[in-house]
Amino acid sequence: MTVMRRVSDPPHTDDSTVIEQSRRHPERFGEIFDAHFAEIHRYVASRLGPGPAEDVVADTFLTAFHKRAGYDAARGSVRTWLYGIATNLVGKHRRTEVRALRALGRRGPDPDAAEGPEERVAARVSAEGLRPEIAGAIASLNKGDRDVLLLVALAGFSHDEISAALQIPYGTVGSRLNRARRKLREALGGANPMHDQEGPHRG
Question: 32: how many CB neighbours lie within 10 A of its CB?
């Protein structure tokens, strides 16, 4: 059976078009917020916990709104652009992230523990697929290597998407990811920490 769109339904508009139109009609930017808030919030909360995430996500969309005139669709999708902004803002809270990762590495998420900020982050990171035994090693990575690794692990980004989000060369993505994985393998006695989870290489 063919399902027909009701005449009253507005036609789908892609994100880049919405951004372009929001330059003249700022209220249109609300569509970007509605479409991407939940995903960006999950990513930031996975790295910093729900408390700091509220402010960081708010700043992410405020920054995107103010910089929307400079958005270039040729350099990546709106989703990728938002992740890049969020990742840069997460970097300002790296001490919170490192403390949480080290806490997870020491004891793993404890469902019976009183939930302080570190415990909430530890539980969230573990739930997203970063096992407690590698959390301490992730905490030891420098910011650039950790950002690349977690954009793969938490957002499922490809090399191209990471390059666009962080505005770094494609080759730098590969070198940072390889370095991060090598350090994690060493910490795990040679085991593959990310199950070869990475974006497609360009042919």
Answer: 22
